[in-house]
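Standup notes, structure subgroup. Blocker cleared on the pyridoxal-5'-phosphate input:
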Amino acid sequence: MKVPLLDLTRQYQQLKDEIEPQVLSVLQSGWYILGPQVEAFEKETAGYIGSEYAVGLNSGTDALRIALSALNIDPGDEVITSAFSYFATCEVISEIGASVVFCDIDPHTFNIDPDDFARKITSKTKAVIPVHIFGQLCEMDRIMVIARDRGIPVIEDACQAIGAAGPPGKAGSIADIGTFSFFPSKNLGAVGDGGLLTTNDPDIDAIARSLRMHGTRNDRYRHETLGYNSRLDELQAAILRIKLRYLDEFNEKRRTHASAYNEIFNEIDGIEPPVELPDYKHIYHQYTVRITGGKRDAVFESLKAEEIGCAIYYKVPLHKQPAYNGKFDNIHLPVAEKAAEEVLSLPVFPEMTVEERGMVIDAVIKAVK
Ligand SMILES: *Cc1c(COP(=O)(O)O)cnc(C)c1O
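Run returned:
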């Protein structure tokens, strides 16, 4: 591969001298799950995100699942979310037996369309999950007004958006609950699975802490409710604490790469660069363009042949996923369906060099011609 889509070894090499002594010290401490590193990480991320509370969990998927449990979402309830996201977002809704109601997206940002969200609300709607896709905040000011007006709790899926911001604040600090993933490829990546739930509500914080430990509170063997095993471990927390200190710098580098791409791609027919809304801070978890004119798959193949890493996030909109067995066949979400045919994500990791960026640009220009 001439330019990889992502190379995790570079960040490790850069931070090795800080990471390795911390890893050793956790190994020597004999305390491996939910200890002082996790506690410190929870305080530091809550401070970074601007939420009152943060709860370390096993994954972003678990953060979403625990968020729905904390809000008492039951079978028969409806939960509205975007049709254009990673599968985990809707999977957890279906898994607890609630009904997913898919919402269409804005053609420019790929984020949930607030007008379609408003249209999809019924008397059964018990929550909405806007997803800050690719690292840009949804129009949270509009979404919160609509949701508050109807008394609907809001869960931000900020799994791709730690550090992103918009007019109402930073991702994960705006709604009732924020959910984050530290899967290794995310902007803040662990060396295994990890996740976080944020909230300003002390009751939700206490419930999430209990749910991650099988429904226990102070007494380890007294289970007040059913729960989960979803704990963050000390090794992950120790590494994440180090990386958190570099997160703004890493996100800034992603933004620099993105604006250099934009400058060139804006002038090229057949390619539409991502749209960053005014007063928003997109942190480019992915740099996703549209390839118009029905040429996306050909461009993808030609980049592969040139050994330029690229990926299609997402090829299948959620309502068309085989797991749903045609259940949503009658539902048409034209903007999400068209996006799935046109999107292409290009390399944008912080450690990518200017030379590599140039190779990506040259290959893309050649491919769209
Ligand atoms: C990664 C991701 C998740 C799931 O996070 P995991 O830590 O992999 O469980 C959920 N939603 C979105 C939008 C994601 O990108």
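Discussed briefly. The chain has a mean pLDDT of 98.
Next: hand off to the docking folks.
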